[in-house]
Write a structure and sequence with these properties.
By secondary structure, this protein is an all-alpha fold. It has six helices and no strands. Helix 3 packs parallel to helix 4. It starts with 5 loop residues before the first helix and ends with a helix.
């Protein structure tokens, strides 16, 4: 059996091969991609998702090529939750500005 070469894989990416990589090969690929927070103690599925996100970000693969429907749904949900959190943060900032404006107004009026 041939040894896995992450550099060669990046030069000649194959979605089918990516989907079948075992944990050790995924770890080697993660290291090559400089994903230093990926550790052997992490579940294979989580490593695969982290590496997949990087490969998509680097435009080596598209989501359609390497993510299953379940993984796509999970990624969408994650992005949706991140968006909702940003919206809540904007709302909190706006509310704080309103409160600060009201305090300044009351301070000028001597209330």
């Amino acid at each position: 059996m041939a040894t896995f070469d992450p550099k060669q894989f990046i030069e000649n990416p194959d979605a089918t091969e990516f989907k079948s990589l075992n944990k050790d090969k995924l770890l080697a690929l993660a290291e090559h991609l400089e994903l230093f927070d990926v550790k052997k103690s992490i579940k294979k599925s989580e490593i695969k998702n982290i590496v997949a996100e990087k490969l998509i970000e680097d435009e080596i693969f598209s989501e359609e090529e390497i993510l299953s429907e379940t993984e796509k749904m999970l990624l969408f949900k994650k992005l949706e939750l991140e968006f909702q959190e940003k919206e809540r943060e904007k709302e909190r900032e706006l509310e704080l500005r309103k409160i600060e404006k009201e305090r300044k107004r009351k301070g000028r009026e001597g209330i």
